[in-house]
Amino acid sequence: MSSADLIRIVSRSSPMALAQVERVRTELAALRPGIRTEVVPVTTSGDRWMGDLSKLGGKGAFTKEVDATLLAGEADLAVHCIKDVPADRPLPAGTVFAAYLKRDDIRDAVIHPGGLTLDEMPAGTRIGTSSVRRVAQLAITHPELECVPMRGNANRRLEKLDAGECDALLLAVSGLERIGRTDRISEILPVDAMCPPIGAGVLGLQCREGDTETIEAVAGLGDADVWKEITAERMLLHVLQGHCNSPIAGYARAERDGRLSLRARVFSPDGKTVLDAHEWAGPLDPATLGTSVAVALLRQGAREVIDTIPH
Ligand SMILES: NCc1[nH]cc(CCC(=O)O)c1CC(=O)O
């Protein structure tokens, strides 16, 4: 089959999203030097809206317009942060993920202009984050700190921090790497203290289902271990039916020897309830591991914890 000679890549237009597209273009140029690429930038409702994401109808705020451009045939490939792709409903009909790229750092970082770590911050320090996952875990480890709502892309949040709208930020290490701002990091939080979101640090390449030319052209960029990890993580989220406002955290790890494990936690927003499960796949396939860990959390009462949070 003849291969695509031009791939149009649709992406959000934030600096982080455009950096992600550049990574895909670089990797594709190395793998398939004959293929040209073009970038189709779009602004999503999640980018425009600076209020509570749940008030937007939440789901897919960062992906809806990207999906529409792909499905309309105005682009051939979409690059998504898997973290932002809803798992409580199917992917948009007619689209598939052709590859998940090699995973970046999954941890969150603290950014404090004076270089303080969380432990060093005085009581009442205002941490800018609107993420229920981060708020709940900070309430457990640092109840003396105060979370204040903070939205906008990572560059905008750094500007708001510098303008004094908060005293410190929590942002994904991978995102800071992508926008070239790791110089601002004062502390990297271990996953035990700040369990990452499902899909952290992974970029997915989404294509139209029937577009075998593009699917075949980009499939070679995928990482087989990350495919297993994301399959387990997203099945967990699917079974838990987490919404955009759910404090659900977790990560799978494919070990070098081939073993796969999945840890996941569900928090109440005040951090007073913590459900925790960790299992090895053994003979189970990745999706069944995701189901098994989700069922373990449901047995501990996850349904009630998730459903009592408004969304
Ligand atoms: N919701 C925005 C978003 N989507 C993905 C990342 C981080 C990069 C990633 O995990 O792929 C971020 C920023 C952040 O949470 O700090």
Automatic annotation (TrEMBL):
The protein's enzyme class: transferase
Porphobilinogen deaminase C-terminal domain location: 227-298
Co-factor remark: Binds 1 dipyrromethane group covalently.
Keywords: Porphyrin biosynthesis, Transferase
EC id: 2.5.1.61
GO MF term set: hydroxymethylbilane synthase activity
InterPro entries referenced in this protein's UniProt entry, alphabetically: HemC, Porphobilin_deaminase_cofac_BS, Porphobilin_deaminase_N, Porphobilinogen_deaminase_C, Porphobilinogen_deaminase_C_sf
Pfam family, one: Porphobil_deamC
Porphobilinogen deaminase N-terminal domain ranges (all copies): 7-215
Origin: domain of life: Bacteria
Cofactor (UniProt): dipyrromethane
Catalytic activity: 4 porphobilinogen + H2O = hydroxymethylbilane + 4 NH4(+)
Modified residues (S-(dipyrrolylmethanemethyl)cysteine): C244
Note: The porphobilinogen subunits are added to the dipyrromethane group.
Family (UniProt): Belongs to the HMBS family.
Annotated function: Tetrapolymerization of the monopyrrole PBG into the hydroxymethylbilane pre-uroporphyrinogen in several discrete steps.
Subunit composition and interactions: Monomer.
HAMAP family listed in its UniProt record: Porphobil_deam
Name this polypeptide is given: Porphobilinogen deaminase
Species, as recorded: Streptomyces rugosispiralis
Lineage of source species: Bacteria, Bacillati, Actinomycetota, Actinomycetes, Kitasatosporales
Gene coding for it: hemC
